[in-house]
Amino acid sequence: MSCPDCFRGSVHEGEPRGSVTHAYGLETYVVEPPNGQPPKGIVVVLPDAFGWAFVNVRLLADQYADLGGFKVYAPDFMNGRAAPFRHVFRIICAMVPFITYNWPSRAWPRVKGFFEQLRKEEGSSLPVGAAGFCWGGKQVILLARGDTVDGRPLIDAGFAGHPSLLSIPSDIEKLKLPVAFAMGEHDAYLSVEQAERIRKIVEAKEESARGEVVVYPEAGHGFCVRADQKFPQSTRQADEAAEQCVKWFAAHFGSAS
């Protein structure tokens, strides 16, 4: 299912400023734009294997809200069955139930149900984006196939940071909505050659579905969420990927409104 780097990384320092609520059927971390400004759109974060409660995910949600003026949700799509962080023995013991419960086809109904309710309510008047990482990147690809509710797509645009579990080229060829990819040059799961295959496909799509691919030099799998902040280059690349995500949604939310 995954490479070893899917279960490695650093814990970031900081105190998330959002709150936990129950939204669209799931326990969810939510953060609003700063200074009481109205949201320019909604971004839903689909996490890596460590799930919605991982502090790095919540700090990244805060970053999207602050930089983009978005309302950001990070739901518990794994229903409490995320992989534990750090302790190697616990990770090994948890991998089988994590993989079994959260295999893409089994998780998809939970993800789809959340986005269907979101689109019917807040998403009826605001654009919706999905930002997924590793495990969550695959779910973004599924969302971008163009499933609809009430005649509208579940999302307006997607962002996939170092996604896993992709079938290339078939998953990419099925995309009907624009998706931006952030990939590491040294990703053990997706090679640079595979990234270039993805680039060729998404950049050739018609404008309404055209995507982009950015390969970050020296970065490895997990860099968007679990960069080691002791190294300035790692922090810089994670920040650049966050800026890529925010700019992508700002551009596509404008066209969706």
SSE inventory with pairings:
Elements: E1 19-23, E2 26-31, E3 42-46, H1 55-68, E4 71-75, H2 88-102, H3 104-120, E5 128-133, H4 135-143, E6 148-149, E7 152-153, E8 157-161, H5 170-173, E9 179-186, H6 192-203, E10 212-220, H7 223-226, H8 232-256
Helix pairs in contact: 1-8, 3-4
Task: Provide an overview of this structure.
With 257 residues, the chain is α/β, with parallel strands linked by helices. It has one domain: Alpha/Beta hydrolase fold, catalytic domain (Rossmann fold), CATH 3.40.50.1820. The chain has eight helices and ten strands. The strands form two sheets. Strands 1-2-4-3-5-8-9-10 form an eight-stranded mixed sheet, sandwiched between helices. The longest helix has 25 residues. The relative contact order is 0.15. It comes from Trichoderma ghanense. Pfam families: DLH. This is Protein AIM2.
Strands of the largest sheet, in order across it? 1-2-4-3-5-8-9-10
Q: What is the class in the CATH system?
A: Alpha Beta
Kindly report the oligomeric state of this protein. Answer: single chain
Question: Quick one: CATH superfamily?
Answer: Alpha/Beta hydrolase fold, catalytic domain
- Give the N-to-C terminal Cα separation: 38 Å
Overall tally of structural domains: 1
Strand content: 15-25%
Give the helix proportion (percent range).
Answer: 25-40%
Tell me the overall shape. globular
**Structure class:** alpha/beta
Q: Roughly how many Å is the radius of gyration? A: 17 Å
Instruction: Summarize the biggest pleated sheet.
Output: 8 strands, mixed
| Overall pLDDT level | 89
**β-strand number:** 10
Helical run tally: 8
Pfam families: DLH
InterPro entries: AB_hydrolase_fold, Dienelactn_hydro
Protein name: Protein AIM2
